[in-house]
Amino acid sequence: MPGHGQLALPGGRDPGGARVRVPDPGRGARAGGGAGRGVPSLQAPDQADHSLHCVSVGTLYLVSTPIGNLDDITLRALQVLEAAPLVAAEDTRHTLKLLTHFGLRRPLVSLHAHNEERQLESILERLKQHDIALVSDAGTPALSDPGVRLVSAAVARGFAVVPIPGPSAPLAALVASGLPTNQFTFLGFLPRKRGELERVLGDAGEARRTFVFFESPHRLTKTLAIMAATLGPRAMVVAREITKTHEEFVRGTPAALLAHFEQRPPRGELTVVVAGSDWKPVNGAGSNG
Questions:
Q1: SS3 sequence of the chain
Q2: What is the predicted pLDDT for the residue at 283?
Q3: Which of 164, 191, 208 is the last residue of a domain?
Q4: pLDDT of 151 higher than 80
Q5: What integer pLDDT is reported at residue 3 of this predicted model?
Q6: Both 97 and 52 in a single domain?
């Protein structure tokens, strides 16, 4: 996710990273067009057979990567990244560091918000020849990240698209918030213009569902001030630096959190979780203000 790209090395680990060997349950099966290292194919069973325009070509893997703690990488993600002939990355420099940490060396191509449209046809042509792994700087690609156009185009042209689940800041913040999780709305990054911001927060605040969004440290107090005026004493949580050394969950109402962060300006990556319009805290849980 944009702005969620600072990876903290797990304690006690050599920054160079020892090479990770992952088991090969397929024993000889290959991830179609892979590097030939015995990594099993991870294509969903019969997925291509259900496409109206299926073609026998490579698979696009959507690989989730750590949002802070490198120990959160999954074995399946390592398998795919080791086997993929090409990795499409939001920031190739950042992804190179990630791969190097795990002892992997793969060809990289840049795919970010400013060049996705320009790179689209080139990557789709490569997908006709072999598998491609798509990664963002951190978290799940195509979720408030580059890759949406590529995924849509790949599906439209009959390529298999396979998600490799893993770390996700919105889900991590949501499940640890103490607020209802059965229904929620993810807003991504909020609008910058005040009028649009007020409208989006007002609409979200009227719904009964919990809502989640990303916010930058320098805009948080402005957003909290609008929320205090429009939502009133609503229970909410600001999750900061999730999975990193200074991870923190600050709970309260918009007014209480505004006062808190005016005194202690926030740093790092922020994910905000807000209760729906009809939720009432249990014994005061989830609301400190």
A1: CCCCCCCECCCCCCCCCCCCCCCCCCCCCCCCCCCCCCCCCCCCCCCHHHCCCCCCCCEEEEECECCCEHHHCCHHHHHHHHHCCCEEECCHHHHHHHHHHCCCCCCEEECCCCCHHHHHHHHHHHHCCCCEEEECCCECCCCCCCCHHHHHHHHHCCCEEEEECCCCHHHHHHHHHCCCCCCEEEEEECCCCHHHHHHHHHHHHHCCCEEEEEECHHHHHHHHHHHHHHHCCCCEEEEECCCCCCCEEEEECHHHHHHHHHHCCCCCCEEEEECCCCCCCCCCCCCCC
A2: 62
A3: 164
A4: yes
A5: 44
A6: yes
Give me the domain span that covers residue 93.
Answer: 48-164
Q: pLDDT value at position 70?
A: 96
Q: What is the pLDDT of residue 21?
A: 43
Q: What is the CATH number of the domain that holds 148?
A: 3.40.1010.10
Identify the CATH number of the domain in which residue 204 sits: 3.30.950.10
Average pLDDT over residues 167-174: 97
| Cα gap 79→243, rounded to integer Å | 23
Q: Are residues 101 and 134 in the same domain?
A: yes
Query: Pick from 164, 176, 165: which is nearest to 242 by CA?
Result: 176
Report the largest interatomic distance among the alpha carbons of the chain, rounded to a whole angstrom. Answer: 61
Select from 124, 142, 164 the last residue of a domain. 164
Overall domain count for the chain? 2
Query: Is residue 285 domain-resident?
Result: no
Q: What whole-number distance in Å separates Cα of residue 177 and Cα of residue 249? A: 8
Which of 23, 19, 41, 24 shows the shortest CA–CA distance to 32? 41
At 229, the pLDDT band (50, 70, 90 cuts) reads very high
